[in-house]
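[job 4471] stage=fold_predict status=RUNNING
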Amino acid sequence: MELRQIKYFIAVAEELHFGRAAERCHIAQPPLSQQIKKLEEEVGVKLLERTSRKVALTPEGNEFLRRCRDIMDRIDEAVHCIQDMSKGLEGQLHVGFIGPAALSKLPQTIRAFREANPNIRLEFSAKSTTEQLPMLRADRLDIAFVRLFGHDTSGLNTMVFLREPYVLAIPEGHHFTDRKRVDITDLKGEPLIFNQRIAQPALYRSLIGSFHKAGFMPNIVQEVNTEQSTVALVATGLGCALVPASSAGDKRSGVTFKPLDGDLPQWEITALWKQKNETALLRKFLKVVAEYREVLDGTPEWAL
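[job 4471] inference complete, writing structure tokens
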């Protein structure tokens, strides 16, 4: 069965006249009649009652007409859908992000995009950087917000979404409370809470190296797997912690944040995507991402 046969049948069924249907389909009447006959042979059911005076639909023909119209409606819908997709007006995006990105301007970015594009469906995956990279390469994500440090990004486009310094999270009543700033050398002997080595081995080594340059080994009393867990443990009084400045947006009771001086790496969140997957829709999303990206040289006032 061919699509043109369905179109021919709908024309005959609606006109109930082969001559008018042929004019409507811009073909001669004999080939139209042959196509309808071939269609009936293919489905094995009589669809039309023909006499020298009139053409009428059989009950089966009536039902077939209803379903053929549905087929044509679906085809029209598919055409309109892909046309809208090509213009970035419709479709869906799969967005991956690391947990700390929730404390950045990513939520505002997504809200702004959704308000401007209500017909776009967004699906989210909260995963680690290590988990997101293979998902992105396998086309299971359209864009990933990750924390890079020594990762392989060959073949991927990148945009730094957030760059900010580390700050020091201290528990309530700590002896650093009255200080305006803290230097890394002041942390000698201080109990510290660190992110787990396994999560970001290269970054972990870099942070340890910063303490080595300051002339001592950090006194790590606990390792955790998220920044949120780190701040929560600081609130218990277990120790201090190096956290990204945006973590100060977590106004948790019992925790204060201080600017931290020293030879420390910057904390970054980077957007990654495949060049070949850069559709009109993804480009619209990237435009909003670029509007909300934040690259800071120092600790923002709102974080303190």
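[job 4471] summary: The chain has a mean pLDDT of 88.
[job 4471] exit 0
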